[in-house]
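dumping this here so i dont lose it again. seq + smiles for copper (II) ion
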Amino acid sequence: MGSEDADANPGDGEGPVRAVTVGPFAIDRHCVTNDRFAAFVEATGYQTDAERFGWSYVFAKFLPGELRRVSPRPDITPWWCGVRGAYWAAPEGSGSGLSGRGDHPVVHVSWADAVAFCTWEGARLPTEAEWEYAARGGLEQARYPWGDELTPGGEHRCNIWQGRFPSHNTAEDGYVGTAPVTAYEPNGYGLHNVAGNVWEWCADRWATDHPESGAKGTNRVMRGGSYLCHDSYCNRYRVAARTGNTPDSSGGNTGFRVAWDHRDE
Ligand SMILES: [Cu+2]
């Protein structure tokens, strides 16, 4: 687990490369889709954190002009807008919807929302070690879930940013925003889109020093990178890359996949 890549972000705690043991577990081949999350909400009436707060982060370029102008932006990541009314079923705020995106990953879900969904399904979030073990697809210390080359034979294998970030996405990989959860070829274990598309919540608390007794902070781990990742700014679509966020945070590029204790199937 982990990497000692020279181009890892120094504060991310990817390394050192270390042996980690995981027990038997099952993990979904792909992220939870909008359709699947809708069934959960329909059955339970669950309200997400973004709905309770009344807003969530949306990539500025996805917004119509007026909404883009009135929505506040963080100083250090000004390509994000805090958009009133943005939540999983209205990913670009009021007036937007999920038409044509039923099989895309649900986004604008917080860590707490993801846990609520998992609990309802009798499942759980993967631990970070389980996630990485599954994402590597049986390859040892490869850079990506499919090998060391980003586009083997010129073929795109994941949904990230091409062009100049954050002004121009050429979408050579086929997508500007989210892609269907089963887009691109799966890795050696049959998992789709572990790299790119949307960040995926893990169960673990965030730390960079990998304490054996588990981290104590409040932030939670996210893995995999998203459609906004580009090597000029954030190359966290490498399989060992990691980041974290507060458990009530949500945004238009964060989703999750579900895991289970071992089951026969
Ligand atoms: Cu990134």
